[in-house]
Amino acid sequence: MFKGKEYVYEVYKEKSFSRAAQNLYISQPALSAAIKKIESRIGCLLFDRSSKAIRLTEGGIEYIKAIESIMDIETRFANHLNNLNQLKIGRLAIGASNVFASFILPAIITAFTDQYPAIKVNLIESTTAHLEEQLFSGALDFVLDNYSLDETIYEKHLFCRECLLLAVPPKLSSNIPAREYQLSIDDIRQGKHLNPATKSVPLSLFAQEPFIFLRSGNDTRVRAEKIFLENKLIPRIVLELDQLATAYNVCCYGLGATIISDTLAQKATPNTSMHYYKLDSPHTFRSVFFYNKQNKYITKAMEEFIKIAQKVDIDTVMNKSSSS
Fold first, then answer.
1. Do 153 and 176 share a domain, yes or no?
2. pLDDT of 114-172, one tens digit each?
3. Residues 25 and 103 both lie in one domain
């Protein structure tokens, strides 16, 4: 109904078909024909042509009011898009498990909001299963996780690589025969466990010790089971938990050994009495990705967040977390 509205509005502004035609860079007959076509389409005359001065009819007055309302909406929408593209407004929802939400994302979100203070960032901390549900539904823009999500559904952006370690409280007697393989928290922070010259501990030394595992389905649990299977061992699990940070904290109190990521070891509050061991298995290495749903519209805010996240020095993030 409002196709060609710019012709009608120009005539209304100029009160002249000839001046309006000049402004629109068309001939006056072409403009008159276009206006008549619009009037025919809506079934109402817009201009009273009976006098020398062009005036709006009653229907024309309402048509102009409608045009101006449409123009206001278009202008507001254009301004909104411009503000989105300039990152003057917007929202971003990020999901992560406890370790990443507590130790990784705060530094990245701070760097992002320092640069784009008008973007409201919402951080959701939960289990991988729940986060994937939220990502699939569109409630989350990104999920930061070390679990491999379906690549036919989700696009991934590499953030970092991490390595699994065996963490053993000092009270467990197996530390004695494993003494030559022990690594301190300082060794882990210096990356000694990644040095090929560093010896891996025989997991059989801890075959009789109690273990704290994450619940089934968690990536760390899946990898831990594979590591034990490679060594033809069955772990004596005394406690199952949902979060890696909780498992590590319980381990620090001496309940049992556990398998953790070097990310957590480097970022958690230092425990100088804990013993760490390198494990000989390809399952100890994994990648951490930011995931977003395939075919989801990628906003400018999302693009900039990933750029900033990938620029943040992971070692710097770890050092800031550990020194705070």
1. no
2. 999 988 999 999 988 899 999 998 899 999 999 899 999 999 999 999 999 999 999 99
3. no
Q: How far is CA 257 from CA 100, 104, 170, 213, 252, in A?
A: 22, 24, 10, 9, 9
State the CATH number of the domain containing residue 172.
3.40.190.10
Nearest residue to 127 via CA among 150, 97, 95: 97
Both 156 and 170 in a single domain? no
Stretch 9-31: mean pLDDT, rounded? 89
Which pair of structure tokens corresponds to residue 290? 């930011």
189 shares a domain with 296: no
What is the Cα–Cα distance from 33 to 29, expressed in whole angstroms?
6
Beta carbons of 235 and 211 less than 8 angstroms apart: yes
> What is the tally of structural domains in the chain?
3
Which tens digits make up the pLDDT trace of 164-198? 999 999 999 999 999 999 999 999 999 999 999 99
Report the helix count and the strand count for the chain, using DSSP H and E: 13, 11
Residue type, 161: R
Confidence of residue 314 (pLDDT cuts 50, 70, 90): low
Q: What is the pLDDT of residues 269-290, one digit of tens each?
A: 878 899 999 999 999 999 999 9
Would the CA dihedral through 95, 96, 102, 104 be positive or negative?
Answer: negative
* Residue 73 domain flag: no
Pairing mode of beta strands 275-278, 120-125? unpaired
Query: Residue 43: left (phi > 0), alpha (psi -120 to 50), or beta?
Result: left
* Domain shared by 30 and 96, yes or no: no
SS3 117: coil
pLDDT of residue 223: 96
* Structure token pair of residue 313: 């020095």
- 30 in any annotated domain: yes
Residue 254, phi then psi, degrees to nearest 5: 100, 5
